[in-house]
Amino acid sequence: MHFVIDSNTVFSAILNPNSNIGQIILNGSKYFTFLSSDLLFEEIKNHENKILKISGLEYQDYSLIYSLIKTKLKFINQNLIEDKILQKAYHLTMDIDPKDTLYIALSIQFNCKLWTGDNKLIAGLKKKGIDQFITTNEIFRLYLEKEYKSRKK
How far apart are CA 5 and CA 62, in angstroms? Predict the structure, then answer.
């Protein structure tokens, strides 16, 4: 199964790698493929000081956690997204949050759900008839089911 993962979800995993989000990314990659925009690097770099302050992590620990999480994601260059899909995604997000355009475009292009906790985005797109999302609780449940099945073997 493929899922697009947004920056807020990755931020959450960095802040608390022992959380459900962190565990899904770190251990769930054996069951799921997590796709994200290559611009995620920029977003995280731009918020690095904030992440360090909120987490209380030393830079070395932050860097280690971030590096480990990055190995669990597949990054897609935004230039590989079809123009018509980018335009569609922009029109869907322009009045909600245009910064989410690439994540929506990736979920459309790869025909998979977006893993996000952005309730404003979810509500705004549901009003437009788009319901291509998975919540942390839903993906955690899938992860646990797959773990259970693999341990029964």
Answer: 19
Q: What is the pTM of this model?
A: 0.92
Q: What are the boundaries of each domain within the chain? A: 2-152
- Give the residue among 87, 81, 92 at the shortest CA–CA distance from 125: 92
Give pLDDT tens digits for 115-142: 999 999 999 999 999 999 999 999 999 9
Sheet of strand 133-134, all strands in order from the earlier edge strand to the far edge: 73-76, 33-37, 2-5, 113-115, 133-134
Residues 6+ apart with CB under 8 A from 128: 92
Domain at 2-152, CATH from 3.30.1490.20, 3.40.50.1010, 3.40.630.40, 3.40.50.720: 3.40.50.1010
